[in-house]
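Sanity check record (used in CI):
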Amino acid sequence: MLDKALLLMETLAPVTDAAPMGVSELARRSGLAKSTVHRLLRHLVILDLVLAIEGGYILGDRLAGWTNSIGIGVDVAQLRCAAVPYLVELHKVVPTAVVSLGILSGARVRYLDSIHGHHPPPAAALSAWAPVHCTAIGKLLLAYRPSIDVAELLGPGPYPRYTPHTRCTPAELGQELRSIRVRGTAFDRQEFRVGMVCVAAPVHTIHRPAVAAISISDTAQADLAELPRHLHRATVGLARAIQDIDIE
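Expected output for IclR family transcriptional regulator:
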């Protein structure tokens, strides 16, 4: 049974949340019976090794926790530790907002840490994961990836629509990514959650661009004009702090 579970997870490895795989397709690609696939998926979902989303299945969140360095060239635990003072200082400037640190993990954003005030944070800020195509951190980190990588990560589209403002086609997203590369910041203007806006800036190292990003999320009434300046101080400070833990 273990070998069949591993086969199923290997089949799911290239699958993204933009194009989840259903039971029938999993059975066809893996060569397993549909009844076997269905039974295995039930157990793998319980173990958080596979995630059931609208339209099918993708690999689950638990896998990312089994490795400290997930392709960004920096130890995740050390990155989180180094970021804490910068997140705290940034939150003092924007006490009503949610300040977050995130990285790219496959076709999703993985939030490593978030700080919020006394008011309940937006729903998106409570999640450890989020889609890349409609979040500020996700779009920012995609913008620093080669175009071919973005196409492989997200597939041909259309991408899932979360709000009326979500960019759902490769053409729309591609235009936005080009703009992000020019200005160096990314915005989410109610693209993931209605009533919520966000701005993100990259954390560069001397070896890799945009190994991580810091974001500020707030309600749609927030003024985004001054936030990039505050973010810049935090991201530059964190970039300097992690130079010694950057992995060649």
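Residues 92 and 98 are 11 Å apart (CA to CA). If this sentence no longer matches the regenerated tokens, the check is flagged for review.
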